[in-house]
Amino acid sequence: MDVPAHRAVRRSYDVGMVSGNPHRPGAARWLVPALAGWVAGTAIQLTQPQLWVYWLYVPGMLIGAGAAVGLFMRQAFSMPHALCMVLATALLAFGQVGVRALAFQARALEPALEGRDLLLTGVVASMPQSSSSGLRMQLHVESAHAEGLPVRLPSRIQLSWYLGFGDARHNASSNTLPTLWAGERWRMVVRLKAPHGNSNPHSFDYELWLWEQGVQAVGYVRDGKGHPAPQRLAQTWRHPVELARQEMRQRIDARLSDSNHAGWISALVTGDQNAIARADWNVFRATGVAHLMSISGLHITMFAWLAGRLTGAAWRRSARLCLYVPAPHAAVVGGLALACAYAVFSGWGVPSQRTIWMLAVFCLLRLSGRAWPWPVVWLLAGVVVLLMDPWAWLQAGFWLSFVAVGVLFATDDRGERAGSASVWWRIRAMLREQWLITMALSPLVLLLFGQVSVVGFAANLFAIPWVTLLVTPLAMAGTLVAPAWDLAEAAIGVLAGYLRWLAQLPFATLSVASVPVWVGLGGVVGGFLLAVRLPAPMRLGGVALLVPVLLWQPPRPPVGQFDLLAADIGQGSAVLVRTAQHALLFDAGPRFGRNSDAGDRVLVPLLRALAVQLDLLVISHSDSDHVGGAASVLAVHGHAQLLGSLAADHGLWQLRRGARCQAGQRWVWDGVVFTVLHPPAQSRLQRVKPNATSCVLRVSVSGGAGRQKAAALLTGDIEAAQERQLLDNGVLLQADVLVVPHHGSKTSSSAAFLDAITPRVALVQSGYRNRFGHPADVPMARYARRQIGVFDSPHCGAMFWRSAKPSEVICQRLEELRYWKHRLPDK
Fold first, then answer.
1. Does the pLDDT value for residue 419 go beyond 80?
2. What mean pLDDT is predicted for residues 333-346?
3. What is the number of domains present in the chain?
4. Among 505, 528, 552, residue at a domain's last position
């Protein structure tokens, strides 16, 4: 139930309302409390930090089911009875979600198998995705062995096959990987680990996304010396839909090999959103049309409407068929069936599934002639989605579409529409619907993403009919007549030019800080009040509820204090330092691929959520895990200065002028002192290892006037030789918090260096089960002997430290514990 087709949803509702065949009143009274209870029970279960055991869930399910049936059979109805029904169905929903989660969790990867070479046989279960670094695919595991002994693995895993990784023996001369097809059976050596995503404030929950996909382990193919070569065994008939999608994608790529928009058509036909370039996605987000370039509820519902019309027209041509089944009913069933087939062919993604369940509800109501008030129909559609996918409750797409449907129901103008069907009225109705949706959903979009498109109304007003009535039909027609893809590509070119022009406007997007839930919910209510037809005072109340969303500012340190946030960006470094009025980012994390880096995926959204405008970006040195996301950060923060230990010919200097990082540089922001301790001014960056020239930055407050002294030391990737150099120079190293040098490498964190710093706590930025083995055991033992509290990214996620409380570190992963999140054992 992603972005709905508004008229199709409303049409199904209208037919039910005029059918004149309502439920018996006694049964209908129980429906609303039962549905409300189901929603509440599902929501409460999703807040559990860890799952209980079966014997706690199952009795609750039985009690809830028995109580609900008993209440439903009663003739009497009162408010206490309704509350009891809410509690009964909440207990039933809570229990069934818990049982399903336990059953899924029981098949998780055993920790003892993580990081080991496993020989497995499996079938490619998804259309492989290509990237500059290799392939990514999902595999259905049939058998697995570790050191010759059979082991149990999750049934579905996600694998990456990296190009040239580990001295690969695939066609090294052409540096290519073999072509994999969905349904193929392969035998290969892999290394797996539990799904473990980055955990940052207001970030995307990667682990929940994999949970919904049914993936319980991720890993990579071991294709190098000392390992058996991956072997293709056979082409099976399993996963025929994925194979058909892949073949269709190949046809599109072959036909439009010279086009910049082939990926758009692949996305519309096969659901392959990865085919669209990152720059295009940035345009879609800036103009608010991203929903049009994925197989969303809009596409599927419009497809259902068109298929229903065609089915009904064909059905009416046979009098015999109409005697058995009325043409309107055949149109409903045919439209739903063909829409379901389209959703399956496009990948059967979670948004597509939600839309099919929603359409099924409305179609069943239409076929049965039920006449229910719109809030009941709306709530029932949501409950059906939650019944099939309880974790949809936590997905942005569910809430966007669910609220959109509710707004359209609440603002329906059937009375006015009954007496007018002119072209101008239809144009007016389309404009009104788009305006209502834009106005009602903007606060919700701000709550979910911290950014909303100001030009979204103008973009969607053209893009929705252009894509749904022209581009998508042409793209689908190309599956039968290939030249139609050329016409679709030409139509996309017109749309792309219009969207890029809108995206380049200086006011194209509005960004606000992420607000607390209570402020965001108030804003959503305010948008709803503005959209529906209410008296002016109530609409003004909606405006009042929106103001906090627009003006909210996260708390900042007071003058004379600072805080530090070590972001969770995997194997790399990125540390945000904030004072009362300024902000500095020390390093920008790694590059993940040609079109993906930590700056775009993690740091830019994080800075937006915290309402941070960078004053300075410091790049400690040129290693890719420190500089990889810098270009993306600088592209968004146009006023940020650049300070880096980078060679004169490094590409970043072409993006932003700045200064070379040198010992002795010093500045003061809001009573906080920043001092560069390394590298020396005379060091030659091009003649030494980049780690040796890492910028070292000390941030401190001097105390006084009742304030406590505090300091932080950011060290980049310096090693023991540079640590000795700092000690020999006699610079002040003492700090309360130390960002551990070189991610905890065994070549750093010497004993004398730690004795000079005497930190209370130390922060390690490293990736979960990274291939370097960071942090190493030997340096960690030195921290332990000195009773220094060590916090690392895999256990903590993002780590937050404040100079006002120098002994305290807040771990983001521990702040938002949920049972689907990977939890490492305590160190």
1. no
2. 88
3. 3
4. 552
